[in-house]
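Ticket #4471: structure export looks truncated?
Reporter: QA, pipeline team
Priority: medium

Steps to reproduce: submit the single chain below to the structure queue and open the exported record.
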Amino acid sequence: MKKILTCFLSLAVAVFLFSGSALAQDMSKEGLTKELKALKERTRRFEEALTILEEAETSVIKEDEDEIQPGGTRELNKDVEDLEKYIQGIEFSGTIEVEAGYEQFKPKVGEKVDSSDLTLATVDFAVDALITDRMRTHVLFEYEDDENVIVDEAIIHYQAEEVCVPDLSCNSPWYASIGKLSIPFGYFESHLISGPLTEDLGESKETAVVAGIYNPFINIAAGVFNGDIDKTGNDDHIESYVAACRFTLPEDVSPNVGLMIGVSYISNIADSDDLADFFVEGFEPDPIAIKDYVAGFSSFISVSFMNRFFFEAEYVGAVESFEEDKNFKPKAWNFEVAFIPIEDFEVAVRYGGSLDTFGTTENFLPDTQVGICGIYEIFNNTSIV
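Actual output as written to the record:
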């Protein structure tokens, strides 16, 4: 802007001098003096305008620097990297988790058992490709300790999952996803490296179709899929379904307070990954079937304050007992509190538990889970936990 105004000033002076030289012979000394004073006044005004512009530019730069301070320069670098990846249209990402842990298991009957281990817990490699401004594909390869590499997720997203924001950049309130994905049952947010008990009970990855409607306040989704656990006597069909509703307080309504509340429902909670494995190992149905479907319910609340203080609470459970064992009505809960005292360092504490999750051989989930975690980001995307 300064360069443009400077050129404009030079042009104005040149035009004025040319006109003045042509008329000089017809003007008196007094007239020339008046014109010179007028020129000086115009020059002074231009200089004042340039000074005001320079001060405005300095103010904008200072405001931008002030905005960067809370998140640090790393956050700015991350935004730039995300923008570059979006422009290129394809993104590669991954995660490597190495865990050292100690575990103690104390059954109601029998001696307690404790163990410790060092494991390569997870290796993830994801490929995301932006097909159009509304469609994206996502493929996630995963390796877990002592297991083969598997395709954990393979999804086609339409107006969903960061492709664009439904009802805003998409100018449409609805979205859809199809493929092998985590169905929208449960929340499972955690500030610790290990997942909560609610995730062990409720997480389910299925080949499904999920669609929903969205606005800045509420997100409603529903999906159908063919689960792993069927009802005795039923044919193998697409008959399981899930529904979820999530309310979010927009940032522009309350910039310092974040709030999210949600509920979800699944027609057959035995379709969850870990619970399905438990049925196969514990009850040994042949073929894999149960006497009757048992629905599941989930609710959660997530609160943050100034992006420094966090509180998570969630409940996941069956709505009734399984006919295989009237005492088997699994439910789990999780509470977490986290705090970021300084940039790049976070401390989190967890308390979780379960009830009526025992089976024919051993407990499906521990009665109590307690954890504390410190996370320090030493570099971008690199943390010590």
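Status: closed, not a bug. The export was complete when the record was re-opened. Leaving a note from the reviewer for reference: The radius of gyration is 31 Å.
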